[in-house]
Every structure is written in C-alpha cells, then in structure tokens.
Amino acid sequence: MANTFFDEQAEQSQIKAEIVTKYFLVWSKVIIASQKRYGRENRVAYIDLFAGPGRYSDGALSTPIMILQSALQEPDLCERLITIFNDKDATNTDSLQKAISEISGIARLKHRPAIWTDEVGDQIVQKFASMTLIPSFLFVDPFGYKGLSLNLVNAVLKDWGCDCVFFFNYNRISMGLNNDAVIPHMQALFGPERAASLRERFNMTLPNAFERETFIVDEMRLALREMGGEFVLPFRFKNPEGTRTTHHLFFVSKHFRGYEIMREIMYDHSHKELGVGKFEYNPADARFPSLFELLRPLEELEAMLLADYAGKTLAMKTLYETHSIGKPFVLKNYRDVLCRMEHESKVTMDRPCPPRKKGTLAPDVRITFPRN
C-alpha cells in the first residue's frame, strides 16, 4: 500500500509544524545570545530525521521548508545554522532537495543544508553519541515508532543547549505492546524493564481506554526523566471529531528556559478553559499524579500557592521556576493570580502596587505568604 501521508497537509500537521518552527526560532535566539555573551561555539543545528519531501502534494510546506524560510529572516541564523535533513526514502530526499533549491534567498545560508538518506537506527544513534554536538534541536517524526528510541533522544540531549521534540503515536504503540514481533522497538522506546512492566500491566489493570492512554503517556514521561530529560511536555492531538486521540508531541529538555519557551508556545496552540491552557493533555485522575497536575484549573492555583509557600518569602522568578514545573500554568497565570492576591491582601510584596504599575510583577519582586 502506498504511503499517502504527504498527499495533503492535515490541520494537525500544520499545527505540529508551527509549534516546532516557533520553538526553533525562539530557542535559537536564546542560544545565540548565550554564545555571543560567553564566546561559545558560533553554530546551531536543526536536525530532522524523518524529513519527508519538503512539500505536500497539495503544495503545503512541510517543517524543513518552514524552518529554512524562517531562518532566512534572521541574519544570525544565516551565518550560524547547520541543518541536517534525513529520510531513508531517496524519492523524498530528491524532492526535498528540489524544494530547498527553490527557496528564495537560500544562498544566504552560510552552511548548505545536508541531506541524508539513512535508516534511523543504531548507526545514527552511535554517530550522535560519539561526538560532542553543537547546540542542536532534534525533531523526530516517524510514521509509526520505528527508529524512535530513548538512546536516540539521549545521544542528542546529552550536550549543552540540545533539545528534542518527537512524535509519539499512541495508537500504534498501544497495539505494539502486545505484539511479540515488535518487542525490540518497545524496548528501545521505553527501556527493557519498563517495556516488560508495561506489557504485563497494560491490559490487566487498565481496562478503560482513557486510563490506558494516560498510563502509557505517563510512563513515557517517567522514562525520559530517568534518562536525564528533566523537563518533559506532552501535547495531545485528537481526531477532527474530537472523539479520540491520534498522537502526541513530546518535548524534552534539560533546562527550564527551554521548558518555559515550549510551554508558552503549546499554550498558544491549545484550547483554554477558565484561562488555563489544556495543552490537549490526556484525561487523567489522581492515580496518575504527574499528569493530574497538568489538568488543575486556574481557580486552584491560589490555594496551591498559599499552601505550598505558607510563611515563606521568595522572588517571583524563583517561585515561577520551581512551582510551575509539571503544571499547566504559564507566567501570565501566575502574574494574574498573585496580583489579585496582593489586591485582596492575601500576600504582600516588597514593591507594592501602587506605586508598581497595576498587573505587572517583575522577576525580582519578593512575595511574602502568610503562615497557615
């Protein structure tokens, strides 16, 4: 059966490409500013291991072309950007090469995009693992799950300034857990011990489809964190009818700044309820605490802050960076809630409003919470 994935760009693919492109642009500016400040390596990389043909059959641009077109608008990126686009299908890479050559101004890039036609497996993992990478953003978007592994993510994430986004096909993976023929792929994705545990527990204790999805996504989060990816964000995509999950997009980073940037971007692309982004996360309940935290409504944030910081004084920046991890609240949510709490005399601040401008809260403003 012919692969028709690139015949037409679905809305989900467009949103996915926008999330990846927006993150890459903000991430690269942060990295380049750090490189200039500290005299570090003067290159950054974008790596796409399942790049596809560059354009869909209907003419819509795929992620590689969006990345390159965006980079051409940034002089620093024109000088510093290294791009690696891989696809094992030579027909795709030929098409991609043609699409790249047709980009207006592509010659402004100092480094010509590299096109690979490799199978994504141990050889690529070993290649990345054996070298110290320049700051790199890795995008792994396989049609199913073959080629996606913890070792691949870790081979890139191990070095300074490197982050990863990957496609997680929940439906294919849930079927794979009970398929003896793909056990090696499940082991590569979750690790041997976790894959065996998942296989044993999947149908035995989780008869409900929503529970099974939440369980698998949560286990993926835990596997990434145990590997060293301290900051993990899943973003769920549902089918057009909104009746079932199609896949997830996972972001992994070792640095809060990357986590913060991606959370803001995912927030912008998610549905909102009472001012809180849903991030299209999986349905969850208290049996899955790490995902349950991601679904708490904004109205609970005030109570959480009063309980978690009772009798303490700390800077806004410290509070946000420590409290927001694993929760759906973005900086605006914290600022709005804390300013309201100040107005209602539930907290005090060392630079009160007024004279501080209403609704503002600088990173170094110190907030004092009452004792319980």
Q: What string, H for helix and E for strand, traces the elements in order?
A: HEHHEHEHEHEHHHHEEHEEHHEHHEE
Give the count of structural domains. Answer: 2
Q: What's the overall geometry?
A: globular
Query: How much of the sequence is in beta strands?
Result: 5-15%
List the helices and strands and how they pair.
Layout: H1 11-38, E1 44-48, H2 63-71, H3 75-80, E2 81-86, H4 90-101, E3 114-116, H5 122-129, E4 136-140, H6 150-157, E5 163-168, H7 170-176, H8 183-190, H9 192-205, H10 209-227, E6 231-238, E7 245-253, H11 256-268, E8 272-273, E9 276-277, H12 289-292, H13 301-308, E10 313-315, H14 316-323, H15 331-343, E11 348-349, E12 366-368
Helix pairs in contact: 1-2, 1-11, 5-6, 8-9, 9-10
Please give a handful of descriptors for the protein shown.
3-stranded antiparallel sheet; 7-stranded mixed sheet; 12 strands; alpha/beta; 2 domains; Arc Repressor Mutant, subunit A; globular; 372 residues; Rossmann fold
Structure write-up:
This protein has 372 residues and is an alpha/beta fold. Helix content is 44%, strand content 15%. It is built from 15 helices and 12 strands. A 7-stranded mixed sheet has the order 3-2-1-4-5-7-6, with helices on both faces. Strands 10-12-11 form a 3-stranded antiparallel sheet. Helix 4 links the parallel strand 2 and strand 3. Helix 1 runs parallel beside helix 2, helix 1 runs antiparallel to helix 11 and helix 5 runs parallel beside helix 6. It starts with 10 loop residues before the first helix and ends with a strand.
